[in-house]
Amino acid sequence: MTLTLMDLGWSASFEQARAEHPGALTPYRLTEIHRAQMNALGADGPVVLTTPKFSAGELAVGDWVLADPEMRIQHILERRSLLQRRGAGTDAHVQLIAANVDTLFIVTSCNDDFNIARLERFLALAHEAGCYPVLVLTKADMCEDPREYEREAQVLDPMLTILTVNARDPESAAEVAAWCKSPQTAAFIGSSGVGKTTLTNALTGGDAATGAIREDDARGRHVTTARSMRPMLKGGWIIDMPGMRALRLIDTREGIDNVFDDLAELEAKCRFSDCAHESEPGCAVQAAIAAGDLDLERLDRWLKLRKGEKKNSETVAQSRSREKKFSKMVKGVVKGAKHRKGR
Ligand SMILES: Nc1nc2c(ncn2[C@@H]2O[C@H](COP(=O)(O)OP(=O)(O)OP(=O)(O)O)[C@@H](O)[C@H]2O)c(=O)[nH]1
Ligand SMILES: [Zn+2]
């Protein structure tokens, strides 16, 4: 079967972005990122692209790129959505996780894995990235009253789409697939063991474990880190995002405020614009707590999430500026050396 660009998720907005780059350039969608070369799909099938102009870290699986006749990536087209996080361990870099994901399936199980703070974090990520979030509650078959989990999750957002499934049941998998129809792109996120692989396999008919690269993470555990874009059985795409358990949010302030919109609204009414909502006079948040209008635990989760996000974003920004200064200095030294040679 040959694929058209449309089957790959091409749309009017990408066509517009492409028009800004005249010349003999062809669009491709990246399916795998490697250090020196990228696997991609285009209207003429699978290809291998090189990236003399970009480092591997600047590209994400799911990206639309324009390549020249020598198969070199010349441009990355503006992304419709972008999932990113701060690297694991002491790494202060931004990691691009996946681009142009339409639906982000947030997976948790109807058991101890279910954790409101974690769901809020994933929802903030989805909002910030520009993906449509769908909550998938797995292992409903092993739980007495899955409705209880549904009810608790729905409190987060009355409009949130929630699917309660048994990931091992093909009918359930079909229900999940219905939320990401051809030619859209989906990704699964959630803790280990919640059923992401089971669902991915059901939707793609393949074995997600094949071809994965195992690396040591910060704690010396083995994690699967290879990301790839694969076709679903009924059209549409899945981007595998193994190793997405430790999620350190960066630049997600808006996403967080979206999940906690009531608190963000309240905050705007505080007397001081930098109110910490602790004991400041004229704090609208504390006033709501005092009036019994606001759940103290929810306030704690909001403050904690924002604090962590701020710290990660600052660390990344600092290391960016350090690197910029360093590369400027190196350039200066090289220039100086050339200058001296020339004389
Ligand atoms: N009964 C039941 N078992 C499930 C369900 N979802 C997943 N499982 C089982 O739970 C185990 C873990 O599922 P996986 O699909 O490997 O979980 P994962 O999220 O991919 O885990 P990682 O690969 O570690 O991130 C497997 O044995 C699955 O068969 C479900 O809805 N019901
Ligand atoms: Zn306040």
UniProtKB/TrEMBL annotation:
CP-type G domain location is: 93-247
Species source reads: Aliiroseovarius halocynthiae
The cross-references to CDD domains, in alphabetical order and at most eight, read: YjeQ_EngC
Transmembrane segment boundaries: none
Q: List the record's Gene Ontology CC terms alphabetically.
A: cytoplasm
Q: Which Gene3D superfamilies has this protein been placed in?
A: P-loop containing nucleotide triphosphate hydrolases, Probable gtpase engc, domain 3
What is its subcellular localisation? Cytoplasm
Q: Briefly, what is this protein's role?
A: One of several proteins that assist in the late maturation steps of the functional core of the 30S ribosomal subunit. Helps release RbfA from mature subunits. May play a role in the assembly of ribosomal proteins into the subunit. Circularly permuted GTPase that catalyzes slow GTP hydrolysis, GTPase activity is stimulated by the 30S ribosomal subunit.
InterPro entries named among the record's database cross-references: G_CP_dom, P-loop_NTPase, Ribosome_biogen_GTPase_RsgA, RsgA_GTPase_dom
- One Pfam match: RsgA_GTPase
What this protein is called in its record is Small ribosomal subunit biogenesis GTPase RsgA
| Entry cofactors | Zn(2+)
What are the start and end residues of every segment in region (Disordered)? 309-343
Assigned EC number: 3.6.1.-
Q: Where is the EngC GTPase domain?
A: 99-245
